[in-house]
Amino acid sequence: MLEQTNKSPLEFLSRHLRGDWGDLAQEDKTENELSLKYGFRLLSSYQVSETEKLWVITEADRSVTTLLLPAEY
Questions:
Q1: What is the helix (H) or strand (E) element at residue 70, kind and residue range?
Q2: The pTM of the whole model exceeds 0.85
């Protein structure tokens, strides 16, 4: 899907690592800020095309960050 839109996974991973949570509701962005402080899971959502979103999820223990489509969750 990213190849079809000429996007790189690194683009979205970089945004996630910088705390740019993408297209989340404000309450979810606030939750991410608390998650940074208290060590919970982080979620970002990015609109990749008109019909496709990409999620970036970092586990609470920070051991794994996964990029996936919502349908893959």
A1: none
A2: yes
